[in-house]
Specification:
The complex is a heterodimer of chains A (401) and B (172).
Chain A (H helix, E strand, L loop, with lengths): L2 H4 L10 H4 L19 H13 L6 E6 L3 H10 L5 E9 L5 H9 L6 E5 L6 E4 L5 H9 L9 H55 L5 H24 L13 E4 H15 L5 E7 L4 E4 L1 H18 L4 E9 L3 E8 L6 H4 L19 H11 L3 E7 L3 E9 L11
Parallel strand pairs in A: 1-2, 1-4, 6-8
Antiparallel strand pairs in A: 2-3, 5-7, 8-9, 9-11, 10-11
Helix pairs in contact in A: 4-7, 7-8, 7-12, 9-10, 10-12
Chain B lengths: L44 E6 L3 H13 L2 E6 L2 H10 L8 E4 L8 H11 L5 E5 L4 H10 L3 E4 L4 H19 L1
Parallel strand pairs in B: 1-2, 1-3, 3-4, 4-5
Helix pairs in contact in B: 2-3
The chains are: A alpha/beta (401), B alpha/beta (172).
Chain lengths: 401, 172
Protein backbone atom coordinates (compact mmCIF):
# COMPACT_ATOMS: atom_id res chain seq x y z
CA UNK A 1 0.00 0.00 0.00
CA UNK A 2 1.21 3.37 -0.81
CA UNK A 3 1.39 4.74 2.67
CA UNK A 4 3.88 7.43 1.85
CA UNK A 5 2.09 8.29 -1.28
CA UNK A 6 -1.16 8.82 0.47
CA UNK A 7 0.39 11.71 2.29
CA UNK A 8 2.07 13.27 -0.67
CA UNK A 9 1.04 16.84 -1.28
CA UNK A 10 1.16 16.29 -4.96
CA UNK A 11 -1.47 13.64 -4.80
CA UNK A 12 -3.92 14.71 -7.41
CA UNK A 13 -6.69 13.09 -5.55
CA UNK A 14 -6.18 14.87 -2.35
CA UNK A 15 -8.72 17.54 -2.25
CA UNK A 16 -9.00 20.62 -2.66
CA UNK A 17 -6.97 20.81 0.51
CA UNK A 18 -6.74 24.57 0.26
CA UNK A 19 -10.35 24.86 -0.76
CA UNK A 20 -12.31 22.63 1.45
CA UNK A 21 -10.25 22.24 4.55
CA UNK A 22 -11.01 24.47 7.42
CA UNK A 23 -8.77 25.14 10.37
CA UNK A 24 -10.50 23.97 13.50
CA UNK A 25 -12.23 26.94 14.92
CA UNK A 26 -13.13 25.64 18.33
CA UNK A 27 -11.09 25.80 21.49
CA UNK A 28 -11.50 24.37 24.94
CA UNK A 29 -11.59 27.72 26.63
CA UNK A 30 -14.32 30.26 26.68
CA UNK A 31 -12.96 32.27 23.83
CA UNK A 32 -14.20 30.99 20.51
CA UNK A 33 -11.41 32.14 18.34
CA UNK A 34 -11.88 31.40 14.69
CA UNK A 35 -9.13 31.15 12.14
CA UNK A 36 -9.70 32.75 8.79
CA UNK A 37 -11.53 30.37 6.54
CA UNK A 38 -10.60 30.19 2.91
CA UNK A 39 -13.87 29.87 1.14
CA UNK A 40 -17.40 31.00 1.74
CA UNK A 41 -18.44 27.42 2.23
CA UNK A 42 -15.66 26.90 4.71
CA UNK A 43 -16.62 30.08 6.42
CA UNK A 44 -20.14 28.86 6.80
CA UNK A 45 -18.90 25.63 8.28
CA UNK A 46 -16.69 27.41 10.72
CA UNK A 47 -19.38 29.69 11.96
CA UNK A 48 -21.82 26.89 12.31
CA UNK A 49 -19.36 24.81 14.24
CA UNK A 50 -18.30 27.52 16.65
CA UNK A 51 -21.85 28.45 17.37
CA UNK A 52 -22.63 25.01 18.68
CA UNK A 53 -19.55 24.41 20.77
CA UNK A 54 -19.61 25.34 24.42
CA UNK A 55 -16.88 24.56 26.93
CA UNK A 56 -18.91 21.81 28.55
CA UNK A 57 -19.75 20.20 25.22
CA UNK A 58 -17.11 17.68 24.33
CA UNK A 59 -15.47 18.00 20.96
CA UNK A 60 -16.70 15.13 18.85
CA UNK A 61 -14.26 13.68 16.40
CA UNK A 62 -14.59 11.05 13.75
CA UNK A 63 -11.40 9.60 12.35
CA UNK A 64 -10.64 7.90 9.12
CA UNK A 65 -8.47 5.17 10.45
CA UNK A 66 -7.18 3.42 7.44
CA UNK A 67 -3.64 4.26 8.29
CA UNK A 68 -1.42 3.36 11.26
CA UNK A 69 -1.22 7.02 12.13
CA UNK A 70 -4.94 7.13 12.48
CA UNK A 71 -4.92 4.36 15.05
CA UNK A 72 -2.13 6.03 16.96
CA UNK A 73 -4.01 9.31 16.90
CA UNK A 74 -7.08 7.51 18.17
CA UNK A 75 -5.19 6.26 21.21
CA UNK A 76 -3.83 9.71 21.93
CA UNK A 77 -7.13 11.50 21.51
CA UNK A 78 -8.80 9.05 23.86
CA UNK A 79 -6.60 10.35 26.64
CA UNK A 80 -7.65 13.95 26.26
CA UNK A 81 -10.60 15.02 28.35
CA UNK A 82 -13.16 16.97 26.38
CA UNK A 83 -12.71 14.94 23.23
CA UNK A 84 -15.17 12.29 22.28
CA UNK A 85 -14.53 9.86 19.46
CA UNK A 86 -17.91 9.37 17.86
CA UNK A 87 -17.01 7.25 14.93
CA UNK A 88 -14.36 5.87 12.72
CA UNK A 89 -14.21 4.80 9.18
CA UNK A 90 -12.01 2.24 7.66
CA UNK A 91 -11.54 1.45 4.07
CA UNK A 92 -9.49 -1.05 2.29
CA UNK A 93 -7.49 0.63 -0.35
CA UNK A 94 -6.38 -1.36 -3.30
CA UNK A 95 -2.94 -1.06 -4.77
CA UNK A 96 -4.05 0.23 -8.04
CA UNK A 97 -4.33 3.90 -8.30
CA UNK A 98 -6.94 4.03 -11.04
CA UNK A 99 -9.20 1.74 -9.07
CA UNK A 100 -8.72 3.91 -6.07
CA UNK A 101 -9.66 6.89 -8.07
CA UNK A 102 -12.87 5.20 -8.90
CA UNK A 103 -13.57 4.40 -5.29
CA UNK A 104 -13.22 7.97 -4.28
CA UNK A 105 -15.88 8.93 -6.67
CA UNK A 106 -18.24 6.27 -5.65
CA UNK A 107 -18.01 5.52 -1.97
CA UNK A 108 -20.94 3.19 -2.16
CA UNK A 109 -18.91 0.86 -4.27
CA UNK A 110 -16.05 0.69 -1.82
CA UNK A 111 -15.90 -2.07 0.74
CA UNK A 112 -15.89 0.35 3.61
CA UNK A 113 -17.44 0.13 6.97
CA UNK A 114 -18.84 3.24 8.37
CA UNK A 115 -20.19 3.69 11.79
CA UNK A 116 -21.29 6.77 13.61
CA UNK A 117 -22.95 7.13 16.91
CA UNK A 118 -26.12 9.11 17.37
CA UNK A 119 -24.38 12.44 17.64
CA UNK A 120 -22.65 13.69 14.57
CA UNK A 121 -19.02 14.70 14.76
CA UNK A 122 -17.76 18.25 14.79
CA UNK A 123 -14.56 17.34 13.06
CA UNK A 124 -13.76 14.60 10.62
CA UNK A 125 -10.08 13.89 10.80
CA UNK A 126 -8.42 12.49 7.78
CA UNK A 127 -5.25 10.49 8.23
CA UNK A 128 -5.10 9.01 4.81
CA UNK A 129 -4.37 12.25 3.07
CA UNK A 130 -7.06 11.62 0.56
CA UNK A 131 -10.40 13.05 -0.32
CA UNK A 132 -12.11 10.04 1.12
CA UNK A 133 -13.58 11.83 4.11
CA UNK A 134 -15.28 14.33 1.86
CA UNK A 135 -16.86 11.50 0.00
CA UNK A 136 -17.89 10.00 3.30
CA UNK A 137 -19.45 13.22 4.37
CA UNK A 138 -21.48 13.51 1.27
CA UNK A 139 -22.54 9.96 1.49
CA UNK A 140 -23.56 9.94 5.10
CA UNK A 141 -25.12 13.37 5.10
CA UNK A 142 -23.45 14.43 8.25
CA UNK A 143 -24.19 17.87 9.65
CA UNK A 144 -21.28 19.72 8.07
CA UNK A 145 -18.34 18.48 10.04
CA UNK A 146 -15.08 20.33 9.61
CA UNK A 147 -12.62 18.42 7.55
CA UNK A 148 -8.98 19.30 8.03
CA UNK A 149 -6.63 17.84 5.53
CA UNK A 150 -3.62 15.59 5.94
CA UNK A 151 -1.30 18.32 7.15
CA UNK A 152 -3.71 19.50 9.78
CA UNK A 153 -4.15 15.98 10.96
CA UNK A 154 -0.40 15.51 11.17
CA UNK A 155 -0.11 18.76 13.05
CA UNK A 156 -2.82 17.77 15.49
CA UNK A 157 -1.20 14.45 16.08
CA UNK A 158 2.15 16.06 16.75
CA UNK A 159 0.56 18.49 19.18
CA UNK A 160 -1.19 15.71 21.06
CA UNK A 161 1.94 13.59 21.23
CA UNK A 162 3.98 16.50 22.41
CA UNK A 163 1.46 17.32 25.07
CA UNK A 164 1.56 13.72 26.29
CA UNK A 165 5.32 13.95 26.40
CA UNK A 166 5.15 17.21 28.30
CA UNK A 167 2.73 15.72 30.79
CA UNK A 168 5.12 12.88 31.49
CA UNK A 169 7.99 15.29 31.88
CA UNK A 170 5.99 17.41 34.27
CA UNK A 171 5.25 14.39 36.39
CA UNK A 172 8.96 13.62 36.49
CA UNK A 173 9.83 17.21 37.37
CA UNK A 174 7.32 17.15 40.15
CA UNK A 175 8.88 14.00 41.51
CA UNK A 176 12.29 15.63 41.49
CA UNK A 177 10.95 18.77 43.11
CA UNK A 178 9.47 16.62 45.84
CA UNK A 179 12.82 15.05 46.39
CA UNK A 180 14.33 18.48 47.06
CA UNK A 181 11.80 19.06 49.80
CA UNK A 182 12.33 15.66 51.28
CA UNK A 183 16.11 15.52 50.90
CA UNK A 184 16.71 17.65 53.95
CA UNK A 185 14.81 15.35 56.25
CA UNK A 186 16.12 12.23 54.56
CA UNK A 187 19.73 13.31 55.03
CA UNK A 188 19.10 14.00 58.66
CA UNK A 189 17.44 10.61 59.13
CA UNK A 190 20.32 8.81 57.46
CA UNK A 191 23.20 10.81 58.92
CA UNK A 192 22.05 10.25 62.48
CA UNK A 193 22.22 6.43 62.35
CA UNK A 194 25.43 6.74 60.33
CA UNK A 195 26.96 8.67 63.16
CA UNK A 196 25.81 6.04 65.64
CA UNK A 197 27.47 3.37 63.48
CA UNK A 198 30.68 5.36 63.11
CA UNK A 199 30.91 6.29 66.78
CA UNK A 200 30.32 2.83 68.17
CA UNK A 201 32.54 1.18 65.57
CA UNK A 202 35.41 3.51 66.42
CA UNK A 203 34.99 2.61 70.06
CA UNK A 204 34.67 -1.11 69.31
CA UNK A 205 38.17 -1.07 67.85
CA UNK A 206 39.44 -0.57 71.37
CA UNK A 207 36.72 -2.08 73.47
CA UNK A 208 37.67 -5.16 75.48
CA UNK A 209 34.71 -5.83 77.73
CA UNK A 210 32.72 -8.48 75.93
CA UNK A 211 29.40 -7.24 77.25
CA UNK A 212 30.14 -3.73 76.07
CA UNK A 213 31.26 -5.12 72.71
CA UNK A 214 28.01 -7.00 72.28
CA UNK A 215 25.98 -4.06 73.43
CA UNK A 216 27.58 -1.62 71.04
CA UNK A 217 27.64 -4.05 68.13
CA UNK A 218 23.88 -4.43 68.58
CA UNK A 219 23.48 -0.65 68.35
CA UNK A 220 25.46 -0.71 65.10
CA UNK A 221 23.18 -3.39 63.69
CA UNK A 222 20.04 -1.52 64.69
CA UNK A 223 21.26 1.76 63.24
CA UNK A 224 22.11 0.00 60.00
CA UNK A 225 18.62 -1.45 59.83
CA UNK A 226 17.13 2.00 60.31
CA UNK A 227 18.98 3.22 57.23
CA UNK A 228 17.87 0.20 55.22
CA UNK A 229 14.27 0.89 56.16
CA UNK A 230 14.52 4.49 55.00
CA UNK A 231 15.90 3.43 51.64
CA UNK A 232 13.12 0.90 51.24
CA UNK A 233 10.45 3.45 51.95
CA UNK A 234 11.82 5.72 49.29
CA UNK A 235 12.24 3.16 46.57
CA UNK A 236 9.22 4.35 44.67
CA UNK A 237 11.12 7.48 43.74
CA UNK A 238 13.65 5.42 41.86
CA UNK A 239 13.46 6.41 38.22
CA UNK A 240 12.17 3.68 36.02
CA UNK A 241 13.86 3.43 32.67
CA UNK A 242 10.62 2.32 31.09
CA UNK A 243 7.24 2.68 32.64
CA UNK A 244 6.32 -0.55 34.32
CA UNK A 245 3.18 -2.40 33.49
CA UNK A 246 0.05 -1.97 35.47
CA UNK A 247 -0.56 -4.46 38.22
CA UNK A 248 -3.36 -4.88 40.74
CA UNK A 249 -2.79 -2.24 43.36
CA UNK A 250 -4.41 -2.10 46.79
CA UNK A 251 -5.35 1.54 47.34
CA UNK A 252 -5.39 1.54 51.13
CA UNK A 253 -1.96 -0.04 51.14
CA UNK A 254 -0.74 2.78 48.91
CA UNK A 255 -2.29 5.34 51.25
CA UNK A 256 -0.18 3.88 54.06
CA UNK A 257 2.95 3.90 51.92
CA UNK A 258 2.27 7.52 51.09
CA UNK A 259 1.92 8.36 54.78
CA UNK A 260 5.40 6.96 55.41
CA UNK A 261 6.88 9.26 52.83
CA UNK A 262 4.78 12.27 53.73
CA UNK A 263 6.04 12.27 57.31
CA UNK A 264 9.48 13.17 56.00
CA UNK A 265 8.12 16.42 54.67
CA UNK A 266 5.89 17.42 57.54
CA UNK A 267 6.11 16.31 61.15
CA UNK A 268 3.10 14.39 62.41
CA UNK A 269 3.36 15.10 66.12
CA UNK A 270 0.35 17.40 66.30
CA UNK A 271 -1.71 15.77 63.61
CA UNK A 272 -4.64 13.50 64.37
CA UNK A 273 -5.06 10.88 61.68
CA UNK A 274 -8.46 9.31 61.08
CA UNK A 275 -8.60 6.24 58.88
CA UNK A 276 -12.02 5.19 57.60
CA UNK A 277 -11.42 2.28 55.29
CA UNK A 278 -14.83 0.82 54.47
CA UNK A 279 -13.23 -1.20 51.75
CA UNK A 280 -9.81 -2.02 50.34
CA UNK A 281 -10.37 -1.48 46.64
CA UNK A 282 -7.96 -2.80 44.09
CA UNK A 283 -7.29 -1.14 40.77
CA UNK A 284 -4.98 -1.86 37.88
CA UNK A 285 -2.22 0.70 38.02
CA UNK A 286 1.45 1.40 38.44
CA UNK A 287 1.99 1.49 42.21
CA UNK A 288 4.61 4.25 42.08
CA UNK A 289 2.16 6.54 40.31
CA UNK A 290 -0.64 5.88 42.78
CA UNK A 291 1.71 6.53 45.68
CA UNK A 292 2.81 9.74 44.04
CA UNK A 293 -0.79 10.93 43.76
CA UNK A 294 -1.41 10.20 47.42
CA UNK A 295 1.90 11.67 48.61
CA UNK A 296 1.13 14.93 46.80
CA UNK A 297 -2.34 15.24 48.28
CA UNK A 298 -1.33 14.20 51.78
CA UNK A 299 1.62 16.59 51.90
CA UNK A 300 -0.64 19.38 50.61
CA UNK A 301 -3.14 18.58 53.36
CA UNK A 302 -0.47 18.51 56.07
CA UNK A 303 1.12 21.72 54.89
CA UNK A 304 -2.27 23.41 54.70
CA UNK A 305 -2.83 22.54 58.34
CA UNK A 306 0.61 23.89 59.19
CA UNK A 307 1.41 20.85 61.27
CA UNK A 308 -1.70 21.00 63.44
CA UNK A 309 -5.12 19.46 62.70
CA UNK A 310 -6.89 16.34 61.60
CA UNK A 311 -6.10 14.34 58.49
CA UNK A 312 -8.86 12.04 57.32
CA UNK A 313 -8.22 9.14 54.96
CA UNK A 314 -11.23 7.30 53.57
CA UNK A 315 -11.52 4.42 51.19
CA UNK A 316 -14.65 2.87 49.78
CA UNK A 317 -16.01 1.44 46.60
CA UNK A 318 -19.19 0.95 44.62
CA UNK A 319 -19.60 -1.88 42.21
CA UNK A 320 -17.79 0.13 39.54
CA UNK A 321 -15.56 2.66 41.16
CA UNK A 322 -13.06 2.91 43.96
CA UNK A 323 -13.32 6.13 45.94
CA UNK A 324 -10.65 7.70 48.08
CA UNK A 325 -11.06 10.84 50.20
CA UNK A 326 -8.18 12.81 51.65
CA UNK A 327 -9.39 15.52 54.00
CA UNK A 328 -7.77 18.20 56.12
CA UNK A 329 -8.89 20.80 58.64
CA UNK A 330 -6.85 23.55 57.11
CA UNK A 331 -7.88 27.01 55.95
CA UNK A 332 -9.75 25.75 52.90
CA UNK A 333 -9.52 26.93 49.31
CA UNK A 334 -11.25 30.18 48.40
CA UNK A 335 -13.62 30.11 45.45
CA UNK A 336 -11.41 32.31 43.26
CA UNK A 337 -8.52 29.87 43.49
CA UNK A 338 -10.62 26.80 42.80
CA UNK A 339 -10.56 26.92 39.04
CA UNK A 340 -6.85 27.58 38.93
CA UNK A 341 -5.37 25.11 41.32
CA UNK A 342 -4.99 22.40 38.73
CA UNK A 343 -3.09 24.66 36.42
CA UNK A 344 0.59 23.96 36.09
CA UNK A 345 2.81 26.31 38.04
CA UNK A 346 -0.08 27.75 40.05
CA UNK A 347 0.93 27.86 43.69
CA UNK A 348 0.14 29.89 46.76
CA UNK A 349 3.31 28.82 48.50
CA UNK A 350 6.27 31.18 48.79
CA UNK A 351 9.06 30.78 46.24
CA UNK A 352 11.16 27.74 46.87
CA UNK A 353 8.45 26.04 48.88
CA UNK A 354 6.25 24.67 46.12
CA UNK A 355 6.56 24.17 42.43
CA UNK A 356 2.88 24.44 41.63
CA UNK A 357 3.10 21.23 39.69
CA UNK A 358 1.68 18.91 42.32
CA UNK A 359 -2.04 19.08 41.61
CA UNK A 360 -1.52 19.31 37.89
CA UNK A 361 0.49 16.14 37.77
CA UNK A 362 -1.95 14.49 40.17
CA UNK A 363 -4.84 15.27 37.90
CA UNK A 364 -3.11 14.13 34.75
CA UNK A 365 -2.12 10.88 36.42
CA UNK A 366 -5.68 10.29 37.59
CA UNK A 367 -7.08 11.04 34.17
CA UNK A 368 -4.72 8.56 32.61
CA UNK A 369 -6.34 5.92 34.79
CA UNK A 370 -9.79 6.99 33.70
CA UNK A 371 -10.48 8.45 37.11
CA UNK A 372 -11.82 11.69 38.50
CA UNK A 373 -10.71 14.20 41.08
CA UNK A 374 -13.11 16.54 42.84
CA UNK A 375 -12.62 19.06 45.59
CA UNK A 376 -14.85 20.07 48.42
CA UNK A 377 -13.66 23.00 50.45
CA UNK A 378 -15.03 25.38 53.05
CA UNK A 379 -12.96 28.38 54.04
CA UNK A 380 -11.69 28.10 57.65
CA UNK A 381 -13.01 24.55 57.95
CA UNK A 382 -11.01 22.43 55.61
CA UNK A 383 -10.70 20.72 52.29
CA UNK A 384 -11.41 17.24 51.05
CA UNK A 385 -10.07 15.79 47.84
CA UNK A 386 -12.32 13.11 46.40
CA UNK A 387 -10.74 10.65 43.98
CA UNK A 388 -12.43 8.02 41.89
CA UNK A 389 -10.83 5.19 40.00
CA UNK A 390 -12.46 2.54 37.87
CA UNK A 391 -12.14 -0.80 39.61
CA UNK A 392 -10.10 -3.53 38.01
CA UNK A 393 -12.17 -6.52 36.88
CA UNK A 394 -10.55 -8.86 39.39
CA UNK A 395 -10.88 -6.57 42.35
CA UNK A 396 -12.82 -7.81 45.28
CA UNK A 397 -14.43 -4.90 47.09
CA UNK A 398 -14.15 -6.52 50.46
CA UNK A 399 -15.74 -4.83 53.39
CA UNK A 400 -13.52 -3.89 56.27
CA UNK A 401 -13.63 -6.65 58.82
CA UNK B 1 42.47 10.06 78.97
CA UNK B 2 41.41 7.45 81.43
CA UNK B 3 38.86 7.59 84.18
CA UNK B 4 40.03 6.17 87.50
CA UNK B 5 37.27 4.58 89.43
CA UNK B 6 38.68 5.48 92.83
CA UNK B 7 37.63 9.05 92.33
CA UNK B 8 34.13 8.18 91.37
CA UNK B 9 31.41 7.10 93.78
CA UNK B 10 29.06 4.35 92.55
CA UNK B 11 26.30 5.82 90.50
CA UNK B 12 23.07 6.20 92.46
CA UNK B 13 20.89 7.03 89.48
CA UNK B 14 22.23 4.85 86.77
CA UNK B 15 20.43 5.26 83.50
CA UNK B 16 22.68 3.30 81.22
CA UNK B 17 22.22 -0.38 80.64
CA UNK B 18 25.41 -1.47 82.27
CA UNK B 19 27.88 0.28 84.49
CA UNK B 20 31.35 -0.99 84.72
CA UNK B 21 33.68 -0.19 87.55
CA UNK B 22 37.28 -0.56 86.88
CA UNK B 23 39.24 -2.35 89.57
CA UNK B 24 42.09 0.01 89.06
CA UNK B 25 44.56 -1.93 87.01
CA UNK B 26 46.49 1.17 86.24
CA UNK B 27 46.01 0.64 82.57
CA UNK B 28 43.66 2.69 80.49
CA UNK B 29 40.27 1.17 81.01
CA UNK B 30 37.55 2.03 78.54
CA UNK B 31 34.27 2.15 80.33
CA UNK B 32 30.84 3.37 79.60
CA UNK B 33 29.31 5.24 82.45
CA UNK B 34 26.03 6.78 83.36
CA UNK B 35 25.68 10.36 84.49
CA UNK B 36 26.29 9.90 88.17
CA UNK B 37 27.22 12.45 90.78
CA UNK B 38 30.48 13.76 89.53
CA UNK B 39 32.33 16.42 91.32
CA UNK B 40 33.90 17.42 88.08
CA UNK B 41 37.28 18.05 89.61
CA UNK B 42 39.27 15.59 87.62
CA UNK B 43 37.35 16.32 84.53
CA UNK B 44 38.57 18.29 81.58
CA UNK B 45 35.34 20.19 81.51
CA UNK B 46 31.58 19.91 81.39
CA UNK B 47 29.79 19.49 78.09
CA UNK B 48 26.06 19.95 77.57
CA UNK B 49 24.90 17.62 74.79
CA UNK B 50 21.60 18.46 73.10
CA UNK B 51 20.19 16.02 70.51
CA UNK B 52 16.75 14.46 70.08
CA UNK B 53 18.12 10.99 69.28
CA UNK B 54 19.07 8.94 72.37
CA UNK B 55 21.48 6.76 70.34
CA UNK B 56 23.36 9.79 69.16
CA UNK B 57 23.58 11.17 72.69
CA UNK B 58 24.91 7.80 73.84
CA UNK B 59 27.66 7.79 71.23
CA UNK B 60 28.66 11.36 72.04
CA UNK B 61 28.72 10.54 75.74
CA UNK B 62 30.88 7.48 75.09
CA UNK B 63 33.35 9.46 73.02
CA UNK B 64 33.61 12.47 75.32
CA UNK B 65 33.57 10.70 78.68
CA UNK B 66 36.36 8.43 77.48
CA UNK B 67 38.34 11.57 76.84
CA UNK B 68 37.68 12.94 80.29
CA UNK B 69 34.71 15.24 79.93
CA UNK B 70 31.68 15.41 82.17
CA UNK B 71 28.47 15.09 80.17
CA UNK B 72 24.96 16.32 80.72
CA UNK B 73 22.32 15.36 78.18
CA UNK B 74 19.14 17.00 76.99
CA UNK B 75 16.84 15.98 74.20
CA UNK B 76 15.93 19.48 73.04
CA UNK B 77 16.50 23.15 73.76
CA UNK B 78 13.67 23.36 76.25
CA UNK B 79 14.95 20.47 78.32
CA UNK B 80 18.49 21.82 78.09
CA UNK B 81 17.45 25.10 79.67
CA UNK B 82 15.61 23.19 82.38
CA UNK B 83 18.56 20.93 83.08
CA UNK B 84 20.97 23.81 83.50
CA UNK B 85 18.70 25.89 85.68
CA UNK B 86 17.12 23.25 87.83
CA UNK B 87 19.21 20.10 87.44
CA UNK B 88 20.67 18.09 90.26
CA UNK B 89 24.04 17.95 88.61
CA UNK B 90 26.53 20.50 89.77
CA UNK B 91 27.02 21.61 86.28
CA UNK B 92 30.11 23.33 85.17
CA UNK B 93 29.14 24.33 81.72
CA UNK B 94 32.18 24.68 79.49
CA UNK B 95 30.94 23.74 76.05
CA UNK B 96 27.51 23.30 74.50
CA UNK B 97 27.26 20.73 71.74
CA UNK B 98 23.92 20.86 69.98
CA UNK B 99 21.95 19.65 66.99
CA UNK B 100 19.70 22.22 65.37
CA UNK B 101 16.82 20.26 63.91
CA UNK B 102 14.63 19.16 66.77
CA UNK B 103 10.87 18.94 67.26
CA UNK B 104 9.92 21.22 70.12
CA UNK B 105 12.32 24.09 70.53
CA UNK B 106 14.82 23.80 67.78
CA UNK B 107 18.50 24.30 68.38
CA UNK B 108 18.53 27.78 66.82
CA UNK B 109 16.14 29.15 69.41
CA UNK B 110 18.02 27.45 72.19
CA UNK B 111 21.28 28.88 70.88
CA UNK B 112 19.95 32.41 71.03
CA UNK B 113 19.02 31.76 74.64
CA UNK B 114 22.42 30.34 75.54
CA UNK B 115 24.31 33.11 73.82
CA UNK B 116 22.33 35.57 75.86
CA UNK B 117 22.40 33.79 79.23
CA UNK B 118 25.83 32.21 79.06
CA UNK B 119 27.73 34.46 76.71
CA UNK B 120 31.12 32.99 77.50
CA UNK B 121 30.22 29.40 76.80
CA UNK B 122 31.33 28.22 73.35
CA UNK B 123 28.66 26.68 71.14
CA UNK B 124 29.37 23.83 68.75
CA UNK B 125 26.70 22.79 66.29
CA UNK B 126 26.61 19.08 65.32
CA UNK B 127 24.00 18.48 62.66
CA UNK B 128 22.82 15.70 60.33
CA UNK B 129 21.96 18.10 57.54
CA UNK B 130 24.90 19.96 56.04
CA UNK B 131 23.78 23.41 54.99
CA UNK B 132 26.56 25.74 53.89
CA UNK B 133 24.44 28.88 54.00
CA UNK B 134 23.24 28.05 57.48
CA UNK B 135 26.79 27.26 58.61
CA UNK B 136 28.08 30.63 57.46
CA UNK B 137 25.17 32.42 59.10
CA UNK B 138 25.74 30.62 62.37
CA UNK B 139 29.48 31.17 62.37
CA UNK B 140 28.83 34.85 61.74
CA UNK B 141 26.49 34.84 64.72
CA UNK B 142 29.36 33.69 66.84
CA UNK B 143 29.17 29.94 67.20
CA UNK B 144 32.52 28.29 67.71
CA UNK B 145 32.31 25.41 65.29
CA UNK B 146 29.96 23.64 62.86
CA UNK B 147 30.24 19.87 62.54
CA UNK B 148 28.33 17.48 60.31
CA UNK B 149 27.24 13.96 61.23
CA UNK B 150 28.66 11.40 60.91
CA UNK B 151 31.72 12.89 62.59
CA UNK B 152 34.86 10.94 63.41
CA UNK B 153 35.72 10.89 67.10
CA UNK B 154 39.10 12.57 66.55
CA UNK B 155 37.38 15.48 64.88
CA UNK B 156 34.78 15.80 67.59
CA UNK B 157 37.39 15.65 70.33
CA UNK B 158 39.61 18.26 68.74
CA UNK B 159 36.63 20.59 68.19
CA UNK B 160 35.63 20.29 71.85
CA UNK B 161 39.23 20.75 73.01
CA UNK B 162 39.62 23.87 70.86
CA UNK B 163 36.37 25.29 72.17
CA UNK B 164 37.50 24.66 75.73
CA UNK B 165 40.81 26.39 75.09
CA UNK B 166 38.94 29.41 73.76
CA UNK B 167 36.75 29.46 76.85
CA UNK B 168 39.70 29.43 79.21
CA UNK B 169 41.17 32.26 77.23
CA UNK B 170 38.00 34.29 77.46
CA UNK B 171 37.77 34.05 81.19
CA UNK B 172 40.63 36.42 81.38
Amino acid sequence: METSKSLSPTDSLSPSFPEKSVWPSVSHNNDHHTATPNTPQASHQANKASASITPEDPLRIALSLNHPKGLHALSLFEQIPGIEIVGNATQQISDQEPAREQEWQDPLASPSTLSFSQTSPHVLLNFTGSSYPQALEEHSQLANPEIPGPYTSSLLKKIVEHKSLLERQMTQIEKLANIGTLACEIMHDINNPLYVILGFSENLLEEHHSMAVRDQALEVVQATKRIIKICEELKFYVRQSEPKECTPVNLTQQLEEAMKVARYAVGLENITIIRAYSAHPIILARPEEIVQIFVNLIINALQAMDGRGTLTLEADCTDRMATINIGDTGPGIPQEHMRKIFEPFYTTKPPGKGTGLGLHSVRSLIQQYGGKILIQSVVDEGTTFHLEFPLSPESVPGRNA
Amino acid sequence: MSIHSSLIPPSASSTSKETFLNAGTGGSPRVERSAGMFSGQSMLGGVLVIDDEPDVRRVIRLTLEKAGYYIVEAEDGEQAIQVINEGEHPMVLDVILTDIRMPRINGLEAMTYFQREYPNVPLIVLTGYPDLAMAIRLLNCGITDYLVKPVEHEKLLSAVADALAQRKFHWF
